[in-house]
Design brief:
- With 276 residues, this protein is α/β, with parallel strands linked by helices.
- It has two domains: 72 residues, 2-Layer Sandwich (Alpha-Beta Plaits); 150 residues, Vaccinia Virus protein VP39 (Rossmann fold).
- It contains nine helices and 14 strands.
- The strands form three sheets. It has a seven-stranded mixed beta sheet with strand order 10-9-8-11-12-14-13, with helices on both faces. The protein has a four-stranded antiparallel beta sheet with strand order 2-3-1-4.
- The protein is globular and about 50 Å long.
Length: 276
């Protein structure tokens, strides 16, 4: 019988709370933390004890203009279902897309109803970025095209592309549990989708539409790889950053041969569209 893993729980307080809570969560996700739950003054973060590095965590909890204090404790078991239910609200996008979990009430009348079991690949609170990426996809013909969901998480974006007639959908994520979750959710929504573990180094094909809903540092570091994976005339959407980050992101994208076509805004978050 396998032993129940011991988890480290970080109870963090963030000041000012916004937008820094989401930024710290994104950075902890990049150093191995698996799940997050938002609190009134910050968040809780969880990682398997054997994967925990205090040095990596402390480096992730530094951001100019913000203060993050935390407490650490070991816990033998986490009720992930309880954490998901606290943090995953249904997503309604323009009355067209409705994304819910099994514990939410079903609603009719949507063109693209989607059932998502979030597991540990959801919960960072970035509904704003997901919302904008979905809006871009609704405006973009995907029928018969090859689509990449980069940083696929739960697979929401790839699944929507499949519902809208994409010929082939592939997801890439650095976390094994995201890949498992993506494949489960694709099957749950009767969408054929492949997925693999990896980062930009896993890009070995050419796509006509790419969705990259990741954090700014990763987008900047991997921009050339994304541009190389995009077909001539193809479209790529970026999200996971703020207004002040757009100039740097545009510069990197344009140096990689991409052309800017517009921006969407939702609260403090931004998303841009580019083509090749």
């Amino acid at each position: 019988m396998s032993q129940t893993p011991i988890y480290i729980e970080i109870a963090a307080k963030v000041s000012p709370l916004e937008p820094f809570r989401d930024l710290f969560i994104a950075q902890l996700g990049a150093v191995g933390f698996e799940s997050f739950s938002e609190t009134v003054d910050g968040f809780n973060a969880y990682i398997v004890k054997e994967d925990y590095s205090k040095i990596a965590m402390d480096e992730a909890l530094v951001w100019e203009g913000a203060v993050c204090t935390y407490g650490v404790k070991e816990i033998a078991q986490v009720n992930w279902n309880s954490e998901w239910e606290k943090n995953f609200d249904p997503i309604d996008v323009d009355g067209v897309v409705y994304i819910r979990a099994p514990f939410h009430e079903n609603k009719t009348g949507y063109q693209y109803p989607m059932l998502i079991e979030p597991k540990m690949s959801f919960g960072t609170g970035h509904h704003q970025t997901t919302h904008m990426m979905i809006q871009w996809l609704l405006e973009t013909p995907t029928e018969g095209l090859k689509v990449l969901d980069m940083g696929c998480g739960t697979g929401i974006l790839g699944i929507l592309a499949g519902m809208r007639g994409a010929a082939a959908i592939h997801g890439i994520d650095i976390d094994t549990w995201c890949i498992e979750n993506t494949l489960e959710n694709a099957q749950r929504n009767n969408v054929e989708m492949t997925a693999e573990v990896g980062g930009a180094g896993a890009l070995s094909d050419i796509y006509e539409v790419i969705c990259a809903n990741i954090n700014l540092n990763v987008l900047l570091a991997d921009m050339k790889s994304y541009a190389s994976a995009l077909s001539s005339g193809g479209t790529i959407f970026f999200s996971g950053f703020y207004e002040e980050n757009i100039p740097a992101l545009r510069e990197a994208a344009e140096l990689a041969g991409l052309t800017y076509h517009g921006v969407k805004s939702r609260e403090q978050w931004r998303s841009i569209k580019m083509t090749k």
